[in-house]
Amino acid sequence: MNLNLQDKVAVITGASRGIGRAIAETLSQEGMRLVLAARSGNLLAEVARGCPTEAVFLAADLREEEAPPRLAGLAVEKFGRIDVLVNNAGAATRGDFLQLTEEDWRDGFALKFYSAVRCARAVWPELVKTRGSIVNIAGVGGRTGSAEFAIGGAVNAAMLNLTKVLADRGSQDDVRVNAINPGAIKTDRLTMRIKKLAAEAGISLEAAAARMAEDLGVRRFGEPGEIAAAVAFLASEKAGYCQGTIWDIDGGETKTL
Q1: Which one, of 117, 83, 68, 118, lies nearest residue 8 by Cα?
Q2: What is the residue-level pLDDT of the chain in tens, covering all 257 positions?
Q3: Which CATH number is 9-185+223-248's, of 3.40.50.880, 3.40.50.720, 3.30.360.10, 3.30.450.40?
């Protein structure tokens, strides 16, 4: 399928590893030029070098209020336009609700939710010009609460509501806004969870992975490229009738409507 994304410009946050890196690689393969953001300049440089199209990057902490405007400014200065924003940055501390600190909660919302708000606000005028789109990477924890994922679940739920809010505004401005809820995807973060379970249960990594998959009710874990392919579709005109869409890509983990 030709997605007709050649020479368009995507801004991707959290692009240095995992799902974000896969999104960068996939959109570049589709012909998009990229503006990448994350805290690690070295990793961003590595991603940029591996992309077949032109890619620039900004090493910045998106929890800082001035970072999103700088990111949008870099995109316009370098490429003269913005067609797609992918809000992928952010991870939340897991743990017992009663043990989570005020700082844990502030940090969880600052990096994922508030950075998404600020990035959307910063790029919106450019997206209006290009009739562009936003794809928010949230997570299935925003749909199904879990005792050990209190912060992440609350942040993801807020991201999903933000998606609907921006989609409503986007209907006026001709900007499409959609979201993807990844389930258990094979990233460094999932590997750490498997290692923790293996250590706590005194079992092998293979047994821990199998137990986690069984507990989640999935046959296997997802691949970052599967999320990236969905982002490419939502970023394209092929998804022109998707507005405020919430797409669960979780192997069947989410059982509710």
Answers
A1: 83
A2: 899 999 999 999 999 999 999 999 999 999 999 999 999 999 999 999 999 999 999 999 999 999 999 999 999 999 999 999 999 998 889 999 999 999 999 999 999 999 999 999 999 999 999 999 999 999 999 999 999 999 999 999 999 999 999 999 999 999 999 999 999 999 999 999 999 999 999 999 999 999 999 999 999 999 999 999 999 999 999 999 999 999 999 999 999 98
A3: 3.40.50.720
Residue ranges of domains in the chain: 9-185+223-248, 187-221
4: nearest Cα among 30, 29, 43: 30
pTM for the model stands at 0.96
Kindly compute the dihedral angle of the four CA atoms of residues 160, 164, 170, 172, in this order, to the nearest 10 degrees.
-170
- The CA distance from 191 to 1, in Å, is 33
Rounded to 10°, the helix 205-216/188-201 angle is 110
